[in-house]
């Protein structure tokens, strides 16, 4: 029988939506895969890249390139395991739900709250850095400028989810364009110089060789660089708000760490090719130094502009991911139930609590810039390694990834142990361990060993 003779028996669409269907439609995920990737990039590329790169170069010299490759490999492995965990759960929930399901609610409590604390402190630090830049440009008090950044990030996060995705995509795209232009411009300048190979070889090999501070310095820089890669995991968290979670997870878990390694390592390689590594001063912006070395008249303005964009973009991603994790902790009965409250599809109370935490951190920084605030930053420094370790442990325990799960767990454990032996990271490791221990004590006292599975 011809297909045209087959009657159409598909049910007609309903003329009216029920109230429950309307609520489900409002809660429907509206992020595209591009949004997911860009939100993650927004968290990774903050003000720390444009200034913090100087610390890693000063710590290891040209050998820092080996540190970037090693750290990138470890983060790539973690992303594969995190993606496999998400795929095994059919794209539902973040690592908080996966750890609760595999390692138990106490482990999920420690991991989720440590992660939320990490990004709340990161957001506060970004706001403080942005306030200082604004103060240097137009003499606005840094405290008010920092609070202004937080208010702006809160307003952006109050947008509808798709519009928020558009806004963060635009900000992240501007940062990527700057980095791409920086890399291309540096390569072009070297290629057009009179003796390009002699100049590059002189800058990289002419000041103590490729390992001027020894191989141990290369190893010591790995924990710092891994912390700068924090944010890759946001893509898997944001994928749960996307139209096609599994597709977003598969794409980002494989590509995002490689993209970030290219932009980070490519930028550092250009800096090393154009500047002697011992001319890079910790705390300064090597990007600004390179642009000034190239004679660009707009160097200072460009560096300040991209730093402010990075601050706002990182703040946006931080508010989003903390609110998302707090909501999931609440769904897992590991946080107050009111954190699940939504209004117009937005995570109302989770976003408010996140913004309040950031304001308190900024006020803390203003009141004790050389006392408690550095300790707060130090306590958050090693938490991303703890979170990655728990993800790898959950994957290994669940038999996901098999060989790579055990390898990644061993590598992360080695990096954590290194932090305790290195003078530059020992205090940070001890403070982070103290915070994790405190969370473990609270979990032991307040969280039952077994409870209901996370509900969404």
Automatic annotation (TrEMBL):
The keyword Transport applies. Keywords: Membrane, Transmembrane, Transmembrane helix, Transport. This is Amino acid permease. InterPro entries: AA-permease/SLC12A_dom. It comes from the Bacteria. One of its GO terms (biological process) is transmembrane transport. It is a multi-pass membrane protein. It is found in: Membrane. The chain crosses the membrane at residues 31-53, 65-87, 107-128, 134-156, 176-198, 204-225, 256-275, 295-315, 349-367, 373-396, 403-423, 429-447. GO terms for cellular component: membrane. Residues 35-398 form the Amino acid permease/ SLC12A domain.
């Amino acid at each position: 029988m011809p297909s045209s003779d087959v009657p159409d028996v598909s049910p007609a669409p309903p003329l009216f939506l029920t109230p429950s269907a309307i609520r489900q439609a409002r809660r429907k995920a509206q992020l595209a895969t591009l949004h997911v990737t860009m939100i993650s990039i927004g968290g990774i590329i903050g003000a720390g890249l444009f200034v913090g790169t100087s610390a890693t170069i000063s710590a290891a010299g040209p050998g820092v390139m080996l540190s970037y490759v090693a750290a990138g490999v470890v983060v790539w492995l973690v992303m594969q395991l995190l993606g496999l965990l998400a795929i095994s759960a059919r794209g539902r929930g973040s690592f908080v739900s996966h750890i609760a399901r595999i390692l138990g609610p106490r482990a999920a409590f420690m991991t989720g709250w440590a992660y939320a604390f990490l990004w709340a402190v990161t957001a506060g630090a970004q706001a403080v850095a942005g306030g200082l830049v604004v103060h240097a440009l137009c003499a606005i008090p840094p405290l008010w400028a920092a609070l202004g950044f937080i208010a702006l990030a809160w307003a952006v996060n109050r947008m509808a989810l798709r519009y928020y995705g558009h806004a963060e995509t635009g900000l992240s795209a501007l940062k990527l364009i700057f980095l791409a232009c920086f890399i291309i411009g540096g390569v072009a300048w070297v290629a057009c110089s009179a003796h390009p190979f002699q100049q590059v070889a002189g800058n990289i090999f002419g000041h103590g060789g490729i390992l001027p501070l020894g191989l141990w310095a290369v190893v010591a820089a790995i924990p710092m660089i891994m912390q700068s890669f924090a944010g890759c995991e946001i893509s898997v968290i944001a994928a749960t708000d996307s139209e096609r979670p599994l597709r977003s997870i598969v794409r980002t878990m494989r590509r995002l760490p490689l993209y970030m390694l290219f932009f980070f390592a490519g930028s550092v390689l250009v800096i090393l090719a154009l500047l002697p590594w011992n001319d890079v001063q910790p705390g300064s912006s090597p990007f600004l130094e390179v642009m000034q070395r190239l004679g660009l008249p707009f160097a200072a303005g460009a560096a300040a502009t991209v730093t402010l964009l990075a601050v706002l973009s990182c703040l946006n991603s931080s508010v989003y991911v903390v609110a998302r994790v707090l909501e999931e902790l609440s769904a897992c009965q590991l946080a107050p139930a009111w954190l699940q409250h939504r209004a117009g599809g937005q995570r109302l109370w989770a976003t408010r609590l996140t913004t309040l935490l950031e304001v308190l951190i900024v006020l803390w920084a203003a009141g004790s810039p050389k006392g408690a605030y550095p300790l707060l930053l130090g306590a958050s420094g090693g938490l991303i390694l703890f979170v990655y370790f728990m993800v790898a442990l959950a994957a290994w325990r669940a038999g996901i990834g098999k060989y790579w799960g055990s390898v990644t767990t061993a590598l992360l454990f080695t990096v954590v142990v290194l932090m305790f032996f290195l003078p530059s990271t020992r205090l940070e490791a001890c403070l982070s361990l103290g915070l994790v221990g405190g969370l473990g004590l609270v979990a032991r006292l307040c969280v039952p060993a077994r409870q209901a599975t996370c509900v969404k």
